[in-house]
Specification:
Blueprint: H1 9-12, E1 20-24, E2 28-35, E3 38-46, H2 49-53
């Protein structure tokens, strides 16, 4: 069986000790890690090209979910 999805495999098949947290964006997902009490953006998966140019979704920066 082949699974075609924009959702990261770690989100579908989570391990018990996953260091990642996932947040829903308008057109995809944000993958974040916790570092020193901060939520740091490590990756985005989106179907909207504008999300990759959005300065709020800069990889390595503090992530705050802004609606």
């Amino acid at each position: 069986m082949i699974l075609h999805s924009i959702v990261p495999p770690r989100m579908i098949f989570p391990s018990k000790e996953s260091p990642y947290e996932y947040y829903r964006l308008r057109h995809g997902f944000a993958e974040c890690t916790k570092e020193d009490g901060r939520t740091v953006l490590s990756r985005i998966d989106s179907t909207d090209p504008a999300d990759y140019l959005n300065p709020n979704y800069k990889i390595g920066s503090d992530f705050y979910l802004k609606q």
